[in-house]
Amino acid sequence: MGRANQNLPIFAAMDKQQVFSVKTEEGFERAAITIFRHQAKNCVVYKEFIEGLNIDARAVETIEQVPFLPIEFFKSHAILSSPTPVDVVFTSSGTTGMVTSSHFVTDVSWYADSFRKAFSLFYGDITNYTILALLPAYLEREGSSLIYMADDLIRQSGSADSGFFLYDHDKLHQQLKKQQQAGKPTILIGVTFALLDFVDSHKLDFPELIVMETGGMKGRRKEMIREELHEQLCRGFGVKTIHSEYGMTELLSQAYSKGEGIFNCPPWMKIITRDTNDPMTLVNGGKVGGINVIDLANINSCSFIATQDLGKVYADNSFEVLGRFDHSDIRGCNLLIA
Predict the structure, then answer these.
(1) Which of 78, 119, 125, 216 falls 20 to 30 Å from 145 in CA-CA distance?
(2) What's the CATH number where 155 sits?
(3) How far apart are CA 289 and CA 276, in angstroms?
(4) In sequence order, which residues have a C-beta less than 8 Å from that of residue 304 and are 6 or more positions away?
(5) What percentage of the chain has pLDDT greater than the value 70?
(6) What is the greatest pairwise CA distance in the chain?
(7) Phi/psi class of residue 51: alpha, beta or left (left: φ > 0; alpha: ψ in -120 to 50)?
(8) Domain extent for 153
(9) How far is Cα 38 from Cα 173, in angstroms, rounded to an integer?
(10) pLDDT tens for each residue of 260-312
(11) Which pTM was predicted?
(12) Domain for residue 235, yes or no?
């Protein structure tokens, strides 16, 4: 896979220091256009997509002019902008019979640097935390980018109490009580259905706990609107707010919400919304549209992805996920149906 890229010149559009030091809107746009030109030349699938739209990549000078690759292409093509060997292939989860996505990552250190830096930006020094992960469905298969991230964060925390939990809710309950008694800052990262299963049988009053849901019912439970879900989890864990992570197999960066379903991106990631009827037309902030993601860390794949999520972007660049386009596949990760 990716053989069509083998004769392309080997060069990087930007290095990590340039990408992860982006701080301003102007700096982001310069970096995005540089990466766009690199990928429009070196990613065969993206190049053909752009040409199919009769767009001259050389004439693209602003983010508003950049075409976004539909995320469905990751189900049928190897999306590569680098001819170097693939480090790891991340695959999406899905229900039985569903065609899943594959993300061919040629340099997985971009992913590690991205989620480590984003965690530090939103939560501070990871060594201050114990990381507990309730991700049973993802632990049962290979190729999960979420498990890769959680495993790394667990190790980076340096805490002997950090770790994964499968279906042993009693063990997790005891560990959470231990954390509360010790006064150790703790983050519980969980897939939605597993968190709901846990609070069905166990109740806590642990207001200091950070509960971070990653989305995903996986057909295990009925879909809920965010307010209903978070209210149920808040009652079960005894917390005031529920944190959330917005990421996906096809990306190397994540956005985080510390409550109320309002997400913020790290400086090297940006959300733009498109018209639901015309994918080439962007909509103004505050209006519902299809979510387009710019992920500068995804430099060796495609940084410009048109998702099937619906959302709003606000004036401060925060955003909200409101649901999905009709008739879309239900994603295994990071989806709440509204």
Answers:
(1) 125
(2) 3.40.50.980
(3) 6
(4) 36, 39, 46, 66, 67, 68, 69, 292, 293, 294
(5) 89
(6) 63
(7) alpha
(8) 110-262
(9) 49
(10) 999 999 999 999 999 999 989 999 878 999 999 999 999 999 999 999 999 99
(11) 0.90
(12) yes
